[in-house]
Every structure is written in structure tokens, then in C-alpha cells.
Amino acid sequence: MIKVIGRVTDLASKKAAVIFTKSTCCMCHSIKALFYELGASPAIHEVDHDADMEWALRRLGCNPAIPAVFIGGKYVGSARDVISLHVDGTLKQKLIEARAIWF
Fold it and tell me: If phi over 0 gives left and psi between -120 and 50 gives alpha, with beta otherwise, what is residue 23?
């Protein structure tokens, strides 16, 4: 299982913005749409058939595990956290600092 945690942290740090999702999750769809609207192209990793990956996300402190959003290799939260960052204006700045979008 430690290898799975390493795989998650590796995937989370490969791109400026990374979202772990499930295809049936409506909040996952909303978060992806928000990132696209802001001009980011996040790496999307669907964990529909990977219970180990979802377990690893929980072990890393992602609660709820899905969606799990990483910006600049750091966990920023789930849907509620991302929406809060967007409302207070800091999400776009985090994406700019991580070079996920350019302005």
C-alpha cells in the first residue's frame, strides 16, 4: 500500500494542477469545469476502479477522498475547499503561482 501512496504523490506533483475524480461524481465534474473555465488544463486521474488509490488519498489526508485537488504538488482540498478558494479569489492566484494558468 505504501507504493500506492507514492504513486499518488508522484501523480500529484507531475502537473501544476491535478484532480483525482470519479466519473459518477457530480462535484468532480463541477470542479473540472471550474478549472477549465479559469483556463487551467489539470491532469485528471479517475479512480473509479482503483480502491487502493482512493485509500491512499484518504491516508494522505484527503477527506472526502474524491475529488482531491492538488495545485503545485500540494493538496488544496476537496470540492468545498476549492469553491471557497474560488469565492475568496485565491484559487486563480494559486493556479497562477503554480503555472497552471498564465496572465
Answer: alpha
